[in-house]
Design goal:
It is a single chain. The protein has 326 residues and is mainly alpha-helical. It has four domains: 47 residues, no CATH class; 69 residues, no CATH class; 92 residues, no CATH class; 48 residues. It is built from 13 helices and no strands. The longest helix is centred in the middle third of the chain and has 41 residues.
């Protein structure tokens, strides 16, 4: 070998790639690992001109810039190629050829024409047809309380020829609204009751239960008596009713204070004993027991502030009872 041949062999790497430092020519038929590169792809032109939408918009707008922009937006909605526009036209043509259309009655339409139109929409023959077998996917149902309003609604919808699906959607909205409002009212009532109860307990202390129980005595002679479970009783209807601001009467602290004062004046014994129907004798018995303690355990009694307050309370009730007896 010549010196040049030896040098060429020494500088050669496996695969025939030179390692002498000079950049080798990429092999066109090798792998990427051997330095091969893919030849550039030839540019292919699209079947439709890229500016086909612009040309159509220009043709339709006749030089009006606003109309041009409007037509261009319309073409963007129709599709990406002229073929999309053609397919849309074919769909319209197929629909039109099917003749499955409902003709709107004109101003001079006869009753039979209107009836035919309603029939095509699926309107039932009578209003109650809207409510027959009415079911909702979420399980909502019409209650007895809802029926009068719903039946009137069905009559109104039938007069204007509302489709059944429209009526069903409207009724579902109505029931959902009623349910949401009822839930909100329950939550508001519960919150108001708790706040009022706490305020009255803070004010009346240990007498809270006696004062509130004594209110029932005001309704002793009212129709239905003092039976709060009897929805027909005046007692239940008054206390379960609502004030002008929507609050339940029996939960309003101002009403309870007023009723408790009336009851305490009418039935003083009820304000100092747990039983609202207690007689004056029970008051006398408790006074007697406390006076016995005063005599026998005077020192212990005067250390017991609760017993002293109770004694004063009983004496006040006895005075009212005796005053009423005169």
């Amino acid at each position: 070998m010549t010196e040049l041949q030896v040098e060429a062999v020494e500088n050669a790497a496996p695969g025939g790639v030179s390692i002498s430092g000079d950049e080798p020519e990429p092999a066109s038929n090798g792998t990427l690992a051997s330095g091969a590169e893919s030849p550039p792809l030839e540019e292919t032109k699209g079947y439709w001109p890229e500016d086909w939408k612009h040309k159509m918009a220009e043709d339709a707008s006749a030089g009006d810039e606003k109309a041009y922009q409007k037509e261009l937006r319309r073409l963007d909605k129709l599709g990406a190629t002229p073929a999309d526009i053609y397919n849309a036209y074919r769909a319209i043509e197929t629909t039109w050829s099917s003749r499955k259309f409902i003709k709107l009655p004109g101003e001079d339409a006869k009753p039979d024409d209107v009836a035919e139109f309603h029939k095509a929409l699926g309107v039932p023959e009578t209003p109650d047809g809207y409510l027959k077998d009415l079911q909702f996917d979420d399980g909502l149902t019409l209650g007895d309380w809802d029926k009068p309003a719903v039946e009137d609604f069905a009559v109104a919808m039938h007069e204007v020829g509302a489709p059944p699906d429209t009526v069903k959607a409207a009724l579902h909205w109505y029931l959902m609204t009623q349910e949401e409002e009822a839930a909100a009212l329950d939550e508001s009532d519960d919150s108001f009751r708790r706040v009022s109860e706490q305020a009255l307990k803070n004010e009346y202390g240990n007498a809270y239960r006696r004062y509130t129980n004594n209110i029932a005595s005001l309704f002793h002679s009212a129709p239905g008596g003092m039976d709060l479970d009897n929805e027909e009783s005046v007692y239940a209807r008054v206390l379960g009713g609502r004030l002008a601001d929507g609050k339940v009467i029996g939960n309003d602290p101002d009403v309870i204070r007023w009723l408790a004062t009336l009851a305490n004046n009418l039935n003083p014994a009820g304000s100092v004993v747990e039983d609202a129907a207690a007689s004056g004798r029970s008051v006398e018995d408790e006074i007697s027991a406390l006076e016995t303690r005063i005599r026998e355990d005077r020192r212990g009694y005067f250390k017991d502030e609760a017993a002293q307050a109770r004694y004063r309370e009983l004496l006040g009730a006895r005075d009212k009872i005796r005053a009423r007896a005169r």
